[in-house]
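Most newcomers find our protein records easier to grasp once they have seen one. Read left to right, the backbone structure tokens trace the chain's path through space. Nothing more is needed to start thinking about how sequence determines fold. An example says more than a description, so a record of this kind follows:
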Amino acid sequence: MANYKQLRQDVIDLINLGAPDEEVDAYIQSKGYTPKEFAQASENYGTLTSAVKRGGKGIGMLLGDIAPAMLGYAGEKIGIPGAKAYKERQMAEAAATQQEMEKLLPAQYESYEDVKRLRDVPGYVMEAIGEGLPSFIPSVVTGGAAGVLGRGAVAKAGQIASDRARKAALAAATPEELVSGYAQGAASNMARTAARDAMAKKALQYEAIGAFAGSGALNVPEAFQSIYSETGQMELLPAIAAGGFNAILDAITPISLLRSAKGKGISGEAIIGEWYKRGAKELGKGFLTEGATESIQEMSNAAASKFVDEHKEFFTPENLVRFIDAGLKGGVAGGAIQGAFGVGFGKKAEDRKSTRLNSSHGYIS
């Protein structure tokens, strides 16, 4: 099958030369496309919708084809009948999905090297955001689901911390403070603060576990596929090692999004006057964080391939482009998504009234 970008240019040249439709269609078919498929690819070329679809289909391929193929491979190793055929069938389906994406959902900017002029930058950014957006969803969903499932444990942690803080405050109070009732008020403030902090910490633990699980479900199959495509070998342990490491990195942004989404109590003035500051700050942070993690993830997969096949070179021009492109696309997508969350959600507004009432006694609620 021909590369769509080259085929597109060839067709444009034929049309400009006045070639009849029959000749153009015949040329298209000689390159592995039907006229209908070429028209569909032309509609999808360089659009945000096709970029999102590529990202979504890629995730579907990892979860629906590569992950089952890994199970089939493991089953083959321990002698389960039919496991080998199942593995091969799943890998064939993954290859067919990959070919379909390349054929019908072609990217205009496959790499930063395709950005030749300043006017190409918006298209590169748009495709990077579209391709990257679906990859955040599994980790955010599993992280959020884990947070919901952990509500009982979160509430229990808050209650325990509250009781301890209250008892400690009352035990440290003077008789005068107990008689006046001041100690009880201060103890209540300290108990609320301790409960809030303990609940936030416990919720983050559950969300982190959930986000890591969602990230791992993508990154381990991705590492497995990367090793196979580069070496022709299927290896579980290197894929699990590289994918697990990548999952830790990949969970950073979803956890940050979950924490941002919990920010409430933003005043109208803050929303109007500070949205651009929050957006810019989160965009910059997302670009640096996600850009670095995506680049490191690509290095991790390349290192795993090198481990499997010692003849593979790590420091090649192709790998350098791959690492840089992963960093740029990851940074653009992560920055855009985190920046959007920064605009929509902010840090919880400080309860100034409560602070003012209690600061004179040395307790800040």
The CA atoms of residues 186 and 363 lie 7 Å apart. The chain has a mean pLDDT of 77. The first helix runs from residue 4 to 16. The chain has 14 helices and no strands.
